[in-house]
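Re: export button greyed out
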Amino acid sequence: MNYNPVNALLIFFGLVLIGYLLFRPKSGWFWIIKNNLKSNEKIIIEDVLKQLYHNENSGKEMNLHDLSNSLKFSDGTIVDVVKKMAIIDLITFNGDIIQLTSSGRDYALRIVRVHRLWEKYLAEKTGFDKTEWHDRAEKMEHKLSHEETDRLASHLGNPKYDPHGDPIPTKLGKVASLEGEFLSSLKVGTIGRIIHIEDEPDVIYKQILAEKIHIGSQIRVIENNKERVVFYAEGQEFILAPIVAANITIALLEKEESLEENMARLSSLKDNEEAEIIGISKESRGDGRRRLLDLGFVKGAKISIDLKSPLGNPIAYLIKGTSIALRKDQASKILIKKGVKHGK
Amino acid sequence: MKKDEIEKLITLSSDLRWKIGDEFHDSLAEGIYADASEISNASVSRANEKKKFRLDSKIDSIVTSKTWGFPIMFLILALILWITIVGANYPSAMLSNLLLDNVHPFLKEVAANIGMPWWLDGFLIDGVYLAVAWVVAVMLPPMAIFFPLFTLLEDFGYLPRVAFNMDYLFKKSGAHGKQALTMSMGFGCNAAGVVATRIIDSPRERLIAIITNNFSLCNGRWPTQILIATIFIGAVVPSSFSAVASMSAVIGIAILGIFFMFLTSWALTKTVLKGEVSTFNLELPPYRPPRVLKTIYTSLIDRTLIVLWRAIVFAAPAGAVIWLISNIYIGNESIAAWTINFLDGFGFLLGLNGVILLAYIVAIPANEIVIPTILMLTVLVTGVTGGEGAGVMFELDSVNATGDLLRAGGWTLLTAVNLMLFSLLHNPCSTTIYTIYKETNSLKWTTVATILPIIMGFIVTFLVAQIWRLF
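Workaround output, generated via the alternate export path:
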């Protein structure tokens, strides 16, 4: 073979291109083939069950047409699977409306349990980004067996809620209730706490994340009309489109039990200001949260800025006599009360 | 206890657990801190700490200031590297004079007198002894200078401030500010740099720091870079600029290494490492006067000697291998010559040659012996006169003579540039690989850390060679 740098380069870039097409994240051919091989009946059945469960819970009725619209499988496959599910008594037909039988409902609950437990696991024990939790849990929910699920649950300390605020069904199928109202439906002046952030659809969830809205935050609605919902939380104002606000659930609080109005995020602390820590936001999870607590970022601790790094981030805070540097995104998850008198 | 009672108890406990809720750990930590501060308030009396504090914050306001923070940092790092490289020359020359020019001939003489067979003499003295002696002579002095200096800064309390200053840059590639320190430590020795990653307590960032430490040009590679740059890069510019040109080429390679470090860190966080837990915090301890003697002692024992010992353990068999492949014949060619012929085609594609590739394979244990091995192999395959004989590593006294020998071996400016790139981007030495395994306890990450840089080396040298030949 004759050597020529151009040929060598062409062969090289050809190989790189093939490698890219095969293995690029998500839509690489290798992954597509791998997924298609695995996409079996069990997964389709479980997806149908989950879809029916969620719709029944929100009071919507579904027929075959709705079902095939909401799932990404072909119509033929879904018809086959639905037939089979009726035979093994997971669903029944009421006219053309499809309903879950009680065994179908149990099965669906189990899938939901695995999904939410796995999201909790990803949030507490791994470093995956929030935006990936849902997709990863979607895959995992078809994989875990009963025993594995129970072991996972006890490993996580049998949690009640997943990181989005959704209740996790127990082993026996008990589901804690989620009592709240959608942010979009609240009157001006209402005080409440964010208890749930819906992670579907993806587009809206990403908008909520981009606004840096934290679950567990206390809020006060300032404005609510067709154009926008404005609320005040942790020392800042947030503006959302009503359709986005509808994906956030708020538990109402009585005025008396509402905490300090001058609550703010540590990231908003300025030089020469002194503050007192109120707590750590629910958004700080797992090892990171425990680490902060161990370092002394606990309720009642006095805190002020010690040093700013040349590029402005991180900032070193003086707490309990030591200087500890935190990054901005961490500081935004620590809640403080400003205006404490200068200590000695 | 009866069975149903036990079950009742378990249900009760899980019910209670539900009631306690997620705040449980928070309240516990709060309680502990409340108790602790009560105890300390009651029993500890504070002396006048304010004065010391003011000095601390004065130093801090300078070393972390917008204007002075970065210049001070680079100045100190450059100074340490300069002292190490220049200062190590003298003891290195003395050691190599002693171990290579005096002890080696003496051992040969003794062996000849007691009538040792030639193969045993070659295997033990030319192979094993020479490799070990070489590693000691090249490795020991820079490490014995670099580590104490570095440890003094650490002891003084300056290093956490460096991490504090640099964190924002490292954060952009998903890494921890303290990686600035382990990276600098890697300029001394990658194995020591890998051990130093223990200061990073976040699992993900620590793995990043371990895997990318190899991109810091270590002490074993500086001399190679300087030699090759002096011979080939210095020669293309007028002689009055040659020192500047070759020095900037070496610094350029080191900076390229830092660039690759950031690039790889970023790529790793986006792909294989994204599931690892990441926590950040950085304590800025108060300054304190360094304890010079204790520091020198511990850094010599803890860092220098341990690393040196590991290097010797790995260098000895490498010396044996080098001697053996040059002296065992298959047909009428030595194993070395066969391998070099075999590797030549691939070497050409990378703008290198078979000799260099073989030298990098046998010199996996220690980068220090790459150049002596290359010289020995070049003499072996070209048949140029010179050298000390098959399997005996050597170095020439004059830089010019070394250049002439390499040119006789078919080296061009491209070979030199690609050798410098390959010296930066290849697998870590076996001491480092072993250390990575000890620190991560994972075969997977050790493999990644080993394979990743060499693949990058292949790609970079390949691209450079092709583009070079286009013009």
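Residues 29-100 of chain A form a domain with the Arc Repressor Mutant, subunit A fold (CATH 1.10.10.10). The button fix ships in the next patch.
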